[in-house]
Amino acid sequence: KEADLHRLLRYAADRFSMFGEQQDVQLSLDVPDQLPPVFIDQDAINQVLDNLLSNAIKYSRQGGQVVLQATANHQQKRVVISIADTGIGIPSRDLKRIFERFYRVDKARSRGQGGTGLGLAIARELVQAHGADIEITSEWNVGTTVTFWVPFAQGGKAG
Ligand code: ATP
Ligand code: MG
């Protein structure tokens, strides 16, 4: 379905502003005033945003920053969405397995944060159902950026 991504992103940030404040993590939105309409399953993309924003805040430190950013790529007819944090990061040896179901990096380090290790696996499935993909870059102790894209409405296809 054609969707107003701007509103979707604003609402996602709103859903997490309280959780961010509780963890002393500042969440900000960097989205242009105008974004082309995208063809997406809104419930699915909301779920993706929830999984990624909850990770970004959960695996941050006090005083950390999370930026939810979107930019239109007119050549590739897609909107690229990224969630960048200044959190604990992921060791490079774990990165290639991080999208696997139930895979979690060393439980001890996550300050006893609960979780099942499904969030990223589900996010990837939902993004791939749009004929798109999701990527992660991270540096241990520096931060993590997760990037995915969604297709423009014209000529787009969605799952
Ligand atoms: P769930 O999302 O099911 O509640 P989870 O957060 O452990 O549990 P995923 O979201 O799939 O599971 O993440 C898998 C693992 O990847 C996490 O346990 C954590 O070790 C690591 N991880 C994910 N996102 C980040 C991030 N932004 N910064 C640092 N580590 C992360
Ligand atoms: Mg998670």
What does this entry look like structurally?
It is found in: Cell membrane. This is histidine kinase. There is one protein chain. The protein has about 160 residues and is α+β, with helices and mostly antiparallel strands. It has a 5-stranded mixed beta sheet. Strands 1-3 form a two-stranded antiparallel sheet. It contains 4 helices and 7 strands. The chain is about 30% helix and about 25% strand. A hairpin with a 4-residue loop joins strand 4 (about 65-75) and strand 5 (about 80-85). The radius of gyration is 15 Å and the shape is globular. It binds adenosine-5'-triphosphate and magnesium ion. Magnesium ion binds next to helix 2.
Mean pLDDT: 92
String of helices and strands? EHEEHEEHHEE
Bin the helical content: 25-40%
Strand order across the largest sheet: 2-4-5-7-6
Instruction: Calculate the terminal CA-CA distance, rounded to whole Å.
Output: 10 Å
Low-confidence stretches: none
Tell me the major beta sheet.
Answer: 5 strands, mixed
What structural category arises from helix and sheet content?
Answer: alpha+beta
- Radius of gyration equals 15 Å
The coarse overall form would be globular
> Number of helical segments?
4
Q: Which strand-content bin applies to the residues?
A: 25-35%
Strands, count: 7
Distinct ligand kinds = adenosine-5'-triphosphate, magnesium ion
